[in-house]
Hints:
The complex is a heterodimer.
Chain A lengths: L2 E5 L3 E2 L5 E8 L7 E7 L6 E7 L4 E3 L7 E6 L4 E6 L8 E9 L8 E5 L3 E5 L2
Parallel strand pairs in A: 2-11
Antiparallel strand pairs in A: 1-3, 3-8, 4-5, 4-9, 5-6, 7-8, 9-10, 9-11
Chain B lengths: L8 E4 L5 E6 L12 E5 L6 E4 L13 E6 L2 E6 L8 E11 L2 E6 L3 E5 L1
Parallel strand pairs in B: 1-9
Antiparallel strand pairs in B: 2-6, 3-4, 3-7, 5-6, 7-8, 7-9
Amino acid sequence: QVQLQESGPGLVKPSETLSxxxxxxxxxxxxxxxxxxxxxxxxxxxxxxxxxTSGSTNYNPSLKSRVTMSVDTSKNQFSLKLSSVxxxxxxxxYCARDRSFGGPTTEYFQHWGQGTLVTVSS
Amino acid sequence: QSVLTQPPxxxxxxxxxxxxxxxxxxxxxxxxxxxxxxxxxxGTAPKLLIYGNSNRPSGVxxxxxxxxxxxxxxxxxxxxxxxxxxxxxxxxxxxxxxxSGWVFGGGTKLTVL
Lengths: 122, 113
């Protein structure tokens, strides 16, 4: 069974860059899309973006100017960078493996990491 | 404000049936895009509950079922159990003038009375 584990600093200063890594175990990272999703405390889920193992990316239009994703297939890892963070970026960040049977309009999030809390504060 | 609209809360007694609605628009559910559902128990990550409108992953009880019609979808839970108390989220794909991507409902808190 594939498992995902997020890692990275739990505290980031305003205006700095948030950096997280997701390590995939129990299966290969190849040939799948991988997403980042976040959830502010007490609120709903927000898709941040996804990356394919070729490096192709799609980002949430509302975050696109601040998001960069990358993948390292040799380490079975993919990463998220979110620049110019503010308190509004404080949230639990999840990594997830996408799955679909007919293209993006059928895509869902099949496996999730446990999540990691990132707080933006000085 | 979420692109997909869910009731903030629903409740039911053990053994009863409850439904959770998810209302979208012509740029997502109404466009024929699939709807998926997730269950989030307190303090845990979301877990896939229904995919492709009405399909259950292995291990999900058949008490959970999904349906879709027009610009809306529904999750039904029959034979309600205390362990079903959780937050439930719908998800779909959205394509509009401002861009495309995957969107969630605001979530519905299910309370088992």
